[in-house]
Write a structure and sequence with these properties.
The chain has 472 residues and is an alpha/beta fold. 33% of the residues lie in helices and 24% in strands. The chain folds into three domains: 145 residues, 3-Layer(bba) Sandwich (FAD/NAD(P)-binding domain); 111 residues, FAD/NAD(P)-binding domain (3-Layer(bba) Sandwich); 115 residues, 2-Layer Sandwich (Enolase-like, domain 1).
Length: 472
């Protein structure tokens, strides 16, 4: 067995692990990277990248259904599923070189493609290698959580990992789970021509602002997606290619395919964590504010850290780790400035406190600003006026924002920056946005903060009249 000594050992070659490895080796540290699966992790191969490629394909199919309003008549789209799959795979292939083993070895990282497990508090075995590291980073990501539904184990269901192996477009896709993944895939497959039914035990998009989520759900239902809320599956079975879900309410559903999108669980099994003195929680590894585990030499980032499960969070965590593990500087991870987005059409994005959370914290000192896309000229021209921006403001500073509408995932970046930099609302209102753009929505909602202060203020009007009389 080969013995390797290194400054930094990274376990997991997803977004967070690759960012740590690349940053550390380029700053002079010796780095070993261990990955048992595909380079690029879940995001590149099974998550963000393929799902957004599918969403883009579905958007093209949907054009024919909406073009008549623009005076353009198109024939009914013909969806060629093998070519849709080819588009998804081509998208992955174009991005893959950035995450490849060859690139990281070119940077100077030792890459080992095998399963890793702790054999002591600072040593890990991977294949025929024993690695002793000064610091270790666990970036092992997460996988789809499979609910304990009776009979489900005997059904040919899909998760986000196996969805991309579909050989044909489903005739009727059943989706278990009404979160972001479930809703994105529901709309995409419906637009591509499948019948789609979603079963959600609570509220679909239940983590989001109810008012904003309702706009998205209304659109999906309008496009023909059936969404059953407050329904749980009591059992699952399969006869031939037909999958049946029996519902707790007494009804049943039959479909050709089943996608399980009922949440995710951190990948922590098989790592020998007990040997290294690393404790786990219900959501992942136990970490402190600096992302250290209960073993001071070991950090956890991204989904493995048990918090927000987003690729951009893993990248943010990587910066925290580099500061702490390489230079010994204090660094803490926070979440109040971290945005999230659901890439349905319209998109739904959020950062900071929700309206409910902000009211609980600030009470009557909170102001909620609103601006509807109904009055945005670009949205009107493109017939995409369903949506609005909602910004929570406390003492002149934004503390949270939610946007629903086209490109909401891009528009939310303005508010993520504002919260991160503790920017005053007046600075956003003073921004000049090009006309006509959706970006004007952010300026409009910020400007509404001053509407009652300037245009509905008697003192301001009195001063204006006085000044006008005195001016030559």
């Amino acid at each position: 067995m080969e013995t390797i000594r290194t400054d930094l050992l990274v376990i997991g070659a997803g977004s967070g692990g690759l960012s740590v490895a690349a940053g550390a080796v380029q700053m002079g540290a010796s780095v070993v990277l261990v990955e048992r699966g595909e380079m690029g992790g879940d995001c590149l191969n099974y998550g963000c990248v393929p799902s957004k490629a599918l969403i883009a394909a579905a958007a093209q199919a949907h054009v024919a259904q909406t073009s008549a309003a623009f005076g353009v008549d198109l024939d009914r789209p013909k969806v060629d599923w093998p070519r849709v799959r080819a588009h998804v795979q081509e998208t992955i292939a174009r991005i893959a070189p950035v995450d490849s083993q060859e690139r990281f070895e070119g940077l100077g990282v030792r890459v080992i493609r095998d399963h890793a497990r702790f054999v002591s508090d600072r040593e890990v075995e991977a294949g025929r290698c024993r690695i002793a590291a000064r610091r270790i980073v666990l970036a092992t990501g997460s996988a789809a959580a499979v609910p304990p539904v009776p009979g489900l184990a005997n059904v040919s269901f899909m998760t986000n990992e196996t969805l991309w192996d579909l050989q044909e477009l489903p005739s009727h896709l059943l989706i278990l789970g009404g979160g972001p993944i479930g809703m994105e895939m529901a709309q995409s497959f419906r637009r591509l021509g499948a019948q789609v039914t979603v079963v959600e035990g609570a509220k679909a998009l239940g983590r989001e602002d109810p008012e904003m989520a309702a706009i998205v759900l209304d659109r999906l239902r309008g496009e023909g997606v059936t969404i059953l809320e407050g329904e749980t599956v009591s059992s699952a079975s399969q006869q031939g290619s037909a999958i049946e879900l029996r519902l707790s309410g007494g009804g049943s559903l039959t479909g050709s395919h089943l996608l399980v999108a009922a949440g995710r669980r951190a990948n922590t099994e098989g790592l020998g964590l007990a040997v290294a003195g690393i404790e786990t929680t219900k959501t992942g590894l136990r970490v402190d504010a600096g992302l250290r585990t209960t073993n001071r030499r070991v950090y956890a980032i991204g989904d493995a850290a048990g918090g927000m499960q987003f690729t951009h969070v893993a990248g943010y965590h990587a910066g925290i780790i580099l500061r702490s593990a390489l230079f010994g500087l204090p660094a803490k991870a926070t979440t109040d400035h971290i945005p999230r987005a659901t890439y349905t059409r319209p998109e739904l994005a959020h950062v900071g406190l929700s309206e409910v959370e902000a009211r609980q914290r600030f009470g009557g000192k909170l102001e909620v600003l609103r601006a509807a896309l109904l009055h945005n000229d670009r949205a009107i021209a493109e017939r995409e006026t369903a949506g609005l921006a909602k910004v929570m403001v406390h003492r002149g500073r934004p503390v949270g924002a939610t946007i629903v509408g086209p490109q909401a995932g891009d528009l939310i970046s303005t508010w993520a920056l504002a919260i991160s930099a503790k920017t005053k609302i007046g600075q956003i209102a003073g921004m000049v946005a090009p006309y006509p753009t959706l970006g004007e929505l952010n300026k409009r909602v910020a400007g509404s903060y001053f509407t009652p202060r300037l245009f509905e203020n008697r003192t301001v009007k009195a001063v204006t009249r006085t000044v006008q009389r005195l001016l030559p």
